[in-house]
Design a protein that fits this description.
The complex is a heterodimer. Chain A is of the alpha/beta class. Chain A has a domain of 156 residues: Rossmann fold, CATH 3.40.50.300. Helix content of chain A is 38%, strand content 24%. Chain A contains eight helices and eight strands. Chain A is globular, with a radius of gyration of 18 Å. Chain B is mainly alpha-helical. Chain B has a domain of 172 residues: MetI-like fold. In chain B, 76% of the residues lie in helices and 0% in strands. Chain B contains twelve helices and no strands. Classes of the chains: A alpha/beta, B mainly alpha.
Chain lengths: 227, 312
């Protein structure tokens, strides 16, 4: 079922940081939300999640850094159980094993606290946790910027593989057009709180129409990372 | 682990010996003749020179500072606190009696303080900046500013004189404990309220909370599982300091309410230059501080296992 939001709008301290925005997201869609810092990508991401959750849809979020997703005083097992309970699910060891092996963290010690795991593993744990309830949409907000390029690429590969053939849609928020280009089929470019361009990835990369998209595409040409 | 314990014992020994030596130096060098002070406390009138010299010799004051210090600390190493220079009675049984009055008072003060501060802080933190919050913070500020000797007298005036509900003086029954404990507890509650409130507000500001909320975890679960444990860390620090404040406050409160206890024990001993008694209290207090700090260190590691993960 298509996920729809209309007229999302965010104002902070009297300033509009997200102009009225409407979106339709098809099941299984792979959307990249790109733009420079401060263009309103994360704001749109948060507003989108909150609105869809109010509609009763199952939407999961993966923040930029595991520090923004995990409580350092709580064990991994606690986080997992808490996420299950929040979704109204019973504890299912098999589901956990399946997600853990999909993201290759099956050897992580769940009795440890987040800082007992490497950051790459923490981030994969957060992604695995986001997938517990088979969400209709997973929003990843700069999910790899806290990781080194190799680990980041691995993590995205594992997620891609897991999602392929599933109905879970993905929105990848990033300022890195190159990362987005490899992972998504549709790109939305944001600038000053507006979606200024929305096109298929190949079209947008070859024929950027707006200044913001051209700037991002140009920036990408001298930056080659494996992810 | 063995090294850690050995280090702690060593640290405790240094603190306790340091405190004992320092008090001995201060007491020894305080203005006036210690022998005279002891003699006056003992006989209650001005004594002739021969008696004074006799007292000086008996108390070991004529042998010099180090000899006197050695005379005191030597028997202590085998658990002998010595005898009072004034009464000649053993120090330890009297000290135990005094502690028996003081510790319940201090603990009850702390309990009352926590019982008032926890709900008040939770109430204030519910809606920061609101009228309710401001009233709670203002109450706490007033509480910190009120000196205990004044608060104690006010409480006596209200509950003992006007209402006649509770006894004002003495230590005959549990009812006697209420007013002094309340005096101590209100002071403790005031400072604790502020700390707990800001601890809660700071804990609510943590970067990972929005993500946990978007995971669908209920606000009450977030408060219980993620806010409270983080808020507890600064509160535990302050609780340790608060106990120190209590021991200090106990002296004043015990005098106001005419309660026997460590306060009276210490004040008369200092007046009479009763070295063994003063030293016993100082030693015990230093030891108590070391133990409280140790307990707090351990409690920290229970609360936040990151602490002590790499050292210790």
């Amino acid at each position: 079922m298509t996920l729809s939001v209309s007229d999302l709008r965010v104002e902070r301290a009297g300033r509009i940081i997200l102009h009225p925005t409407s979106l339709d997201i098809e099941p299984g869609a792979r959307i990249g939300l790109v733009g420079s810092s401060g263009s309103g990508k994360s704001t749109l991401g948060h507003a989108l999640i909150d609105d869809l959750q109010r509609q009763g849809r199952v939407v999961a979020q993966v923040p930029q850094s595991p520090d923004e997703a995990l409580d350092p005083l709580r064990t991994m097992a606690f986080h997992w159980r808490e996420a299950e309970k929040a979704l109204g699910l019973n504890h299912d060891k098999q589901r956990r094993q399946q997600l853990f092996s999909a993201l290759r963290i099956e050897h992580g010690d769940l009795r440890k606290r987040p800082w007992g795991w490497s950051r790459g593993m923490q981030q994969r744990f957060v992604i695995a946790m986001a997938l517990i309830g088979s969400p209709e949409l997973i929003v990843l907000d700069e999910p790899t910027s806290a990781l080194d390029p190799v680990v980041a690429a691995d993590t995205m590969d594992l997620l891609d593989k897991f999602l392929s053939g599933r109905r879970t849609a993905m929105i990848l928020i990033t300022h890195d057009l190159g990362l987005a280009a490899r992972r998504v089929s549709q790109l939305m470019v944001m600038d000053a709180g507006n979606i200024v361009e929305n096109a298929l990835t190949t079209d947008l990369l070859e024929r950027p129409k707006t200044q913001a998209a051209r700037a991002l595409a140009a920036h990408r040409s001298w930056l080659e990372l494996p992810c | 682990m063995t090294f850690a314990i050995l280090g702690l014992v060593l640290r405790a020994a240094v603190v306790v010996t340091g405190a004992a030596l320092l008090t001995f130096v201060l007491l020894w060098n305080a203005p006036g003749d210690p022998a005279m002070a002891i003699a006056q406390a003992r006989y209650n009138f001005v004594v002739p020179t021969e008696v004074l010299e006799q007292v000086r010799a008996e108390s070991g004051l004529d042998a010099g500072f180090w000899a006197a210090f050695k005379d005191w600390i030597g028997p202590l190493l085998v658990g002998d606190f010595g005898r009072s220079s004034v009464t000649g009675r053993e120090v330890w049984p009297d000290l135990v009696t005094a502690i028996g009055y003081t510790v319940p008072l201090a603990l009850m003060g702390l309990a009352i303080g926590l019982a008032i501060a926890l709900p008040l802080a939770a109430l204030a933190a519910r809606n920061p900046g609101s009228v309710l919050d401001r009233v709670c913070v203002a109450l706490a500020s007033v509480g910190v500013a009120i000196p205990q000797y004044w608060l104690g007298l006010l409480l006596i005036l209200l509950f003992a004189v006007h209402l006649g509900w509770l006894p004002a003086m003495g230590a005959r029954s549990t009812a006697n404990l209420v007013l002094p404990a309340l005096t101590l507890g209100l002071g403790v509650a005031a400072s604790l309220t502020r700390i707990i409130r800001s601890g809660i507000l700071e804990a609510r500001n943590q970067s990972f909370l929005p993500a946990i909320r978007r995971r669908g975890v209920s606000p009450s679960s977030i408060e219980r599982d993620h806010v409270a444990p983080h808020a507890a860390i600064p509160v535990v620090t302050v609780l340790g300091l608060e106990l120190a404040f209590l021991l200090e406050g106990v002296v004043v409160v015990e005098v106001i309410f005419g309660r026997p206890g460590l306060g009276g024990f210490l004040v008369t001993a200092i007046g009479a230059r009763d070295f063994p008694k003063v030293q016993a209290v100082v030693l015990l207090t230093a030891l108590l501080f070391v133990i409280i700090n140790l307990l707090i260190d351990i409690f920290y590691q229970v609360l936040d296992p990151r602490i002590g993960e790499h050292d210790a």
